[in-house]
Amino acid sequence: MNGTRKTRFPMFATMQRIPGGLMLIPLILGSLIGTFAPGTLEIGSFTTALFSDGALPLIALLIFATGTQVDIRSGAAGVAGHTVVVLVFKTLIPAGLVVLLGTQVGIDGFWGISILALITCFANSNGGLWLAFAGQYGDERDRGAYIASAFDDGPFLVLLFIGASGLGDVPLITLVAAVVPFLLGVLVGNVDQDWRKAVEPVPNIVIPFFAFALGAGINIKDIATGGFAGLFIGAGVVLFTGGLLYLAYRFILKRGPKSGIGFAAGTTAGNAVATPAIVVAADSSFEPYLDSAIAQVAAAVLVTALLAPTVAAFVLRREGGLQASTPRPLVEEGVA
């Protein structure tokens, strides 16, 4: 015996092979059980605590763990410039335009797509996908711009834009409370590398569980109906936010044939599915849109994960920038 045993049913590996699968598959399973057998999750004790009521504490842990992975020492001039450009053109400008739209049409949105769903999708990005793509075709500046996803990862910017715009009533203390776990994580991760390494696996551990708990509160019909709108939102995220960053890469950062990398940022991260619930916890006026927003965001996660790298690779190939690069590590091995 060599101490290892072959996996008979590779559930985890299967979920990882599907874009956004760690979030989407448990979400759908939770929705199925919540729709057709809701009583099974309400028997009390640890079962209810984990599978029905456990979403927010697990999301908070994920936000803390995300903060620990931000290395504030990697802020060289080139990296800082790329990070600011990515954050502004991928997240801040699109989110600002969604808020402007909301002031005109109201939080109901249009065509069954609420402002809650739109701002959640547009004010968030899949840092893992960006890092994988930029690591293959970009250089140290592109890899370092991953830091931008640490700022738009989670609910803080969404709460900030909603509160500052007047679209919702988000108290200042709620904004502070939303960002404390992230800032604490940044502090802990930068003063203690062992903590950074210890919590690095947290996303893979908690995402399936809080996704299931979120799904348990969604009627499966909402996923079916919301999915079509989510496809539309996802395509918009890729083409609009990715397109903005492509233009910024070409005309501001002057990256020439490598400008197509910008499209790889046109994504919505899997953990964005949790953001609508956090917004509703801060302002109950958004509650009527919660189920449809979660379903639409979940669909957008899948669409952007598939479409963004495809479009980025197409543009790079067309402009002669698809050659893979071998950049030097941005930070020490085992730290990033």
UniProtKB/TrEMBL annotation:
Name the family.
Belongs to the KdgT transporter family.
**Keyword list, A-Z:** Cell membrane, Membrane, Sugar transport, Symport, Transmembrane, Transmembrane helix, Transport
Membrane spanning stretches: 20-37, 43-65, 77-103, 109-133, 145-164, 170-189, 201-220, 226-249, 261-282, 294-316
Q: Name one Pfam family in it.
A: KdgT
Q: Which organism is it from?
A: Kribbella orskensis
| Protein name, per record | 2-keto-3-deoxygluconate permease
